[in-house]
Each structure stands twice: as structure tokens, then as C-alpha cells.
Amino acid sequence: MRIKILLVVMLSLLASPIYAQEVYTLQKAIEAAKANNKTVGLYKEDLERARATSEVVRSKYFPQITASGNYFHNTEVPVMTMDIGSFVNQIPLLQNIPPIPPKNIKVGDYDNWAAKIEIQQLLFASGKVSYGYKAARTRIKATEAGVESAKQASAQAAGESFYTVILAREILIAKQDALNRSQEHLKDVQTKFNSGAASRLDLLRAMIDVNNLEPEVTKAQESLSIAHTAFKRILGLNLDAQTDITGDLDTPSVKINLEDAESRAVKNNPRLNIFRFSEKAAGQLELSNRADWLPKVVAFGSYTYQKPYFTDLEGMDFLSFGAGLSIPIFDGLASLSSMKESRADQKKARVQYLDTVDQIDFDIRKAFLDMDEAARRIKSTSENLLKANEVVKIAEASYRSGAVTNLDVIDAQLAVTQVRLAVLAAKYDYSIARIRLMAATGEL
Description:
64% of the residues lie in helices and 14% in strands. It has helices spanning 2-11, 26-36, 38-58, 84-89, 128-195, 200-234, 258-268, 270-290, 334-401, 406-440; strands at 22-24, 64-73, 79-82, 103-106, 111-124, 243-245, 296-307, 316-326. It has a 4-stranded antiparallel beta sheet, with no helix packed on it. The longest helix is centred in the middle third of the chain and has 68 residues, at 128-195.
């Protein structure tokens, strides 16, 4: 019987192209979700962006070097005429020397070009760069915490989806068992009806019971297929991939201490680290913005080659260097506004941190209570299931001997199915609560 039911489960998963089937445990599913989930991928891109921003800020520590050059052609070149002879002839003592003809001097050339290399080094910025770089590095840590938080969220979703598939599988098995049991009972009623020991009413009731269970099995098969598809999506797998799950619904095993769980959450939950580092980064950025109204010292230098260089048509190269000091006087209160903005971000991160602490505490307490309630239900429903199984065996045997009615058997079979589903629901609720507790404590 069990083999037949498992074959039905496997056949329900073969409606897509053939892929190599991969079997997932809970831990393997969690690791796959952390590695492949698309939301985690988006947060990783944010991390790359934060690292790039940090490199941009760090570049201010290094010299800024630029090279430039230009060329232009003149169709006409200015000419300056120097008539030294006229000047000499006006001096009596020099009037007897041979005449000196005027001399034309070109100012520039037809072809002109220049090349220049400039270097600039920030020497002192009153903490603008240093605090800005610290803030950027702290932002990286906040973003890394964001990646870990996304991984925890995807791990939680994978865990919940994992148990949803197991629940859907177990419900299908329970429904198939109920249908098989009902079909066996229909055979008994048919045998009695043929011998005149059962009425047509009993036969119709047994047939209706079978007919009612058949669509429930079909619906359970559909639910299992949907659960598998959702599972693959959360893990970032191809939806046509063939997957299977090995494992069972969780049951109470160890006693969990509430205070210990809360302590681990404050230490391990990455959501808290997001706001811890965001608050620290905002404080560092405030100090960086404060430097905008403080002195800044810059050193600079250049090497230039220019041809022609004024009247020197052969060209000339030369060096120049120096330093500059700038002191802001008034910037329209832009620096003050930037500091206020950073201070507001710092307060906001602090409020978000405290709110997240409260939310995590609530999540832990709720998961703790849900686990406790589900554990109680597991115990009571499991005890009821033992009794219900015994009742249905007695009812089926008694019906064959004529001690009970057909309706008694149908009621007993319905009761055992309902109790079996109640056990599954209790185990599923416990499993989900445990996954959520582990997510809240940052231990998935």
C-alpha cells in the first residue's frame, strides 16, 4: 500500500521535461536558497555598489594627475617691426655708423602646440576625506548585514516551503489511504448487497463516500505540485527541474529557553547589525560634512612644453608648482544642512534599531508560544490517532460480522482521516514555528 502511494506522489511530479532529479534535505534547501535566491542577488549588487562608493572616497587620498594637449594652426602670423636704426640715428654720437635696417620679428608661428601634465594632492581637509572614508567602510558593513538578512529571509522562506511540500505530500498519502480504505469498504458492502445482507441505501452511501474522496485525492496531487513549484522558485531553481524532498515534519525534541533565545537574537540577528552600522555611518558622515566649513590645503604642480613660446619659435618646457589654502566663508548654509541631514539619519537608524529589537522579541515570543501550543496538539492528536485507528479496525471487522452498520464504518473512516490530518497540521505548525524562531535568532 505504501509503495503504491509513493508511486502516485512521484507520478504527480512528472508533468515537465526530464531533468536530473535532485533530492533536498532541509539544510541543503536552505543553503541553495542562500546561494541562488534572486532577492539575495539584489542585495549582493548593493554590496558591490557600497564597495565601489568606498573606493571613490578613498581616491581622494591619492594624487590627481591629468594630461592635456592642444594644437592649432594660424593662417597669418603677427609680425612686430623693430626699427633700431631710426633710434640710433637720433643719437649724435652714433650718427656716423652704417645704417641699421628695420627687423621684422614674428610673434608666434603658423603651427602651435602645447603639452601639459598637472598633479594635485590634497594635503589637509579637516577630516572631510578621513571621516567620509570611515563612513563608506561602515556602510559596507551595514550592506553586508543586509545581505545576511536577505539570506536569513530566503532561508526562512525555503524552510517554510520545505515543510509545506512535506505537508502536501503527507496529506496526499492520507487522502489516498482514505480512498483506498473507502474502496475496500465498498467491496465489503457490494459483497453483502449481492448476498442480500445489505440494502441498496448502504451500497449507495459507500459509493458516494468513494466518489467524494476521489476529487480530494486529485486536489491533494495538485497542491503537492504547486508546493513543489513554489519550493523551486524560492530556491532559485529552474521551474522545470525535477526535485524531491527527503525529511519529515518536525516534532518536539528539546526544551527551548526563551531568555536564551532572546539573547542569541540580539547577538546574531543581522537585521540589528544593519541599523547598528547605519547609525555609526551617519555619525561619521556628519563629521565629514562638518569639514566643509573648515580649511583645506592643496599642493599642485605641472610640467609644460609649449611651441612656440611667445617669440621663441623653438619652444620651451618649464615646471611650476605651489600650494593653496581655502577657507569657506559662507556656503548658503549647505554644510549645516548636510550635518542636520546626517544627524537625522543617525536618529532614524537608532529608532529603527530599537523597533527591530522589539519586533524580533515579539517574533521570538510568538514562535515560542506557537511551538508550545503545537507541541500540545501533537501530543493530544497523536493519542487520538491511536484510538481512531483502533476504532476503524473494530468498525470494519464488526461490519463484516454484522455487528455495526455501514454508516458506523464510514463515520469511523472519516474520523481517522480527520484526526490524521489534525496530527499533520499540528506537526506542520510546530515545524513552521521552529523555523521562524531560528530565523529570529539569526541561526538559519
